[in-house]
Amino acid sequence: MMEIEIEGKLGGSQDFEDGDKASIEQSATPTAARRLHPDLVVTEGFVLLVRKLDARADEEQFYPIDLNKYWLAPNTVYPDGLPLLSRTDLTAAIVEVIDAFLYRVEPSKSRHTRVAFIVGTLAKFFEYMWFNDVYKLSQLTEALFDRLFDLLVEGGWHSALSIKVRLEKALSALSEEDRGHALFIGHNQNKSVKSEEVKKLVATNIESREVAVYFRMIKLFQLDRGWISKLPKAAEEESVSSDGYGYSILRQTLESINMLYGITDGPQIFPYVEHVTRAKRATSPPGKTINMSPAIAGMLLSSAFKWVYDYSEYVIKILSELCDSAVMVSREGQTTLGCNYAQVLNNSSARKAIEELTGLN
Asked: Model-level pTM?
């Protein structure tokens, strides 16, 4: 593993060789330490900070990507899963990939969001690898890469990571004492699912927005256990099953995984040769949008009406509060006009009203 010298925003420096070692041996190839790309910082708390090239002077200059939120899936050796950061080799692999990417890619306004996608994809790939009892990147096989490709085409990461099966297993292991588990409580418990709690329970890295498809499943579990008397209205209809990946997202996913080839102690084989052609052949032609059904169109129109007639009053009030705050800060002679935005939003009655109406928080 490449030894990377890190200058954290919180001060000091560290390298990944000082991390905790898991019981399965982690390979380390000693090489000369080198500094990271000037637009990349790794804090002492292992948060990646990527410079935003489109940030105004009064905005945050770095985009944070917290590595603490990622998991390695349960497997035969670690039945409860592990935090990704417990594996120094895999953590270093992410940093090395992003460092190389920043040196290679042309500067653009979307660069930091591309980095976030790459990190999220690699975290899910490591989860897939771990789920299949592969503990080192050098142990990856062509068969494992090909199997992942087929699963992504079939049902995205939901299929590749067996999320439904793992969630069923995790829920079945809960006892009566878990009735008050954080997953089941909260003022929006009948409208939405706590994505971070689901991800923690299953030890998965799927995106928070993707967890919503398991809301009905969780409520049915509570109903079966007698923890709720009836299904909430939002859980009465069957959840829409996850579809396989289309061309664009599949191509980007394969491209991110390919970036592992060539890093220190990385895969011994190139994951996906001609990944663009392969993604095209496995998916429908890109650029074509499926016709929208009348039911879906009606739902979108209904939602739009709610925002225009029910929520807009509060949105305008929030914007007004933020503008007033910026004017006040300017009059005080401060240069960062948005320095009080977080406090304004936290105290805003309009924000709280929107949360109550929409079920969002």
From this structure: 0.72
